[in-house]
Amino acid sequence: MTIKEYFASRKQEIRDSLFSLEVKPHFVVVQVNDDPASNAYVKGKLKDSAELGITAELIKLPESTSEEKLLSLIKKLNKNQEIDGFIVQMPLPRHIDQQKIKLAISPEKDVDGFHPLSSLNPCTPQGIINYLHHEGIVLQSKNALVIGRSEIVGKPMAKLLLAENCNVTTVHSKTLREDMERYVANADIIVVAIGRQGFLDESFTYKKDAIIVDVGISRDENGLHGDAVPNLPVGLQTPVPGGVGLLTRLALMENLIKIYERNHN
Ligand code: NAP
């Protein structure tokens, strides 16, 4: 099943499961800028919510909003019993400490799963694992390579693959090219999340049945591009666009529903 088909069918399942609920899950998105990329991500999240019958609202603040004001809004949202969960859309303006904001969101309401005490996982890695499971891909004992070590993608991805009993290697910008080539050639599953358009290309050797999960998003006048060039000689490669972005959106809705179920059971 393609990711687009999986996205549509999973959404239908979620819509059906929420249909008969009297009190719908209540989701809030806080946005502190007006940049086109954030606008597009937020629009997608609100559209998904509306299609699933989730009550969603956007609190859009100007870029000049102070850290103090944002923290005080988060405090109010943490306390508001009518709201199941919320997110603060990243990135934030430079004068606001992202880490401080992530830690201020109550783990009970943290739909993004960024808080270290949250019982939920960050949406991109969780969405990827869900899709690999759905496709019946056996993860146990496979050699998994994670390229990138960010807090929101690379590190949690490595942790989740380890929990699936993969042999996990993480590489980064300081990894030597010769080592990168060796790790890529030996990998059964490669998750690439670095934001470097076409980094994985034909100059590398791949296992012929390898799986490449392309998280990267780079934008130019021709649209969106992944960290891997399309159509590499592997078993499965996720597209950009229409790939991991959709899996992330699904995992976000699933995280919200988990919080809702915890609150209503
Ligand atoms: P990030 O915080 O900028 O981290 C990038 C990571 O890539 C860092 O660990 C960096 O290594 C590594 N890196 C950079 N250049 C490299 C190179 N040439 N070789 C090897 N490693 C290199 O980025 P992020 O937030 O993880 O996001 C990564 C990409 O995924 C971005 O394009 C972002 O837009 C995209 N993304 C997509 C989704 C989605 O839903 N599809 C979700 C989140 C992110 P160092 O640690 O050594 O600096």
Short characterization:
The chain is α/β, with parallel strands linked by helices and 265 residues long.
Structure keywords:
alpha/beta; Rossmann fold; 5-stranded parallel beta sheet; 3-stranded parallel beta sheet; 8 helices; globular; binds NADP nicotinamide-adenine-dinucleotide phosphate
Protein architecture, described:
The protein is α/β, with parallel strands linked by helices. The chain folds into two domains: 23-107, Leucine Dehydrogenase, chain A, domain 1 (Rossmann fold), CATH 3.40.50; 123-245, 3-Layer(aba) Sandwich (Rossmann fold). The chain has eight helices and ten strands. It has helices spanning 3-19, 36-52, 67-79, 98-104, 123-134, 154-163, 177-186, 244-264; strands spanning 26-31, 55-60, 85-88, 143-147, 167-171, 189-192, 211-214, 218-220, 223-225, 236-237. A five-stranded parallel sheet has the order 5-4-6-7-10, sandwiched between helices. It has a three-stranded parallel sheet with strand order 2-1-3. A two-stranded antiparallel ribbon has the order 8-9. Helix 5 packs across helix 8 (244-264). The chain is globular and about 50 Å long. The relative contact order is 0.14. The mean pLDDT is 97. NADP nicotinamide-adenine-dinucleotide phosphate is lined by residues 124, 147-150, 152-154, 171-175, 193-196, 199, 215-217, 244-245, 248.
